[in-house]
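Supplementary Methods. Inverse-folding protocol.

Structures were first reduced to a discrete structure-token string of length 249. This string, shown here, constituted the complete conditioning input.
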């Protein structure tokens, strides 16, 4: 019985595959959804094979299905970025602002790098607190610790983020570096920025999830996040752990 059922399944499966092959030629638009597991992490992708009479992107793009529906991450250099701003905003540290000539340029990306324990998170948190005091909605993404632990540790050095979280100005999101792939991190970050209408974004540290150095459509996740932030005019601050005393490794 099992052999007969297996043979029947293979026969039907073969007929289905043949039908799909024929439909690819007959249909005006062919969209392929793929699902695979890599390193024990689920990965979904969407690819347009054909769309007659119209331009389209041929690459496979990461996709997630969540409570808000289906989200597909698309990178396009054709989208116009926000105009370059000459406005400076405070880093949250007066001495650093003086060294920078008034602070960070609005809408730009800043990388704070150094060995563990030198104060990268402190500088990032100062920037988050300063942005919230200006009334700018901010997202702080941490890979190192929970939101509660982060707020507790920063409060010990006088940086109090909890009032801004309670006011709804600041969102602290604890991301897992092992349970999600780089594509999912990117999609979720972009979704949070849209939902929260964030003017400032902090990722601390960017170097925690090794997957974030991977390429998607030819660009790293950090590049794509910076590109998206540029489209919205958001100011980003990344931290990164320097390896072997080289800040760029």
């Amino acid at each position: 019985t099992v052999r007969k059922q297996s043979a029947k399944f293979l026969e039907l499966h073969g007929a289905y595959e043949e039908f799909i092959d024929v439909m690819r030629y007959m249909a005006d638009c062919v969209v392929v959804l793929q699902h695979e597991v890599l390193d024990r992490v689920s990965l979904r992708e969407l690819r347009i094979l054909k769309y007659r009479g119209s331009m389209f992107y041929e690459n496979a793009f990461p996709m997630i299905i969540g409570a808000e529906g289906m989200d597909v991450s698309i990178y396009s250099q054709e989208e116009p970025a926000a105009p370059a701003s000459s406005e400076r905003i405070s880093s949250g540290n007066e001495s650093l602002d003086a060294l920078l000539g008034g602070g960070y340029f609005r809408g730009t990306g800043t990388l704070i790098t150094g060995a563990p324990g030198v104060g990268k998170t402190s500088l990032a948190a100062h920037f988050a607190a300063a942005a919230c005091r200006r009334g700018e909605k901010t997202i702080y993404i941490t890979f190192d610790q929970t939101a509660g632990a982060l707020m507790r540790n920063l409060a010990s050095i006088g940086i109090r983020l909890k009032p801004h979280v309670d006011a709804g100005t600041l969102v602290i999101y604890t991301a897992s570096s092992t349970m999600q792939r780089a594509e999912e991190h990117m999609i979720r970050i972009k979704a949070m920025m849209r939902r929260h209408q964030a003017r400032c974004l902090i990722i601390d540290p960017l170097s925690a999830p090794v997957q974030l150095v991977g390429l998607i459509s030819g660009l790293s996740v950090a590049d794509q996040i910076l590109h998206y932030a540029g489209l919205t005019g958001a100011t980003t601050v990344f931290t990164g752990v320097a390896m072997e005393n080289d800040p760029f490794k």
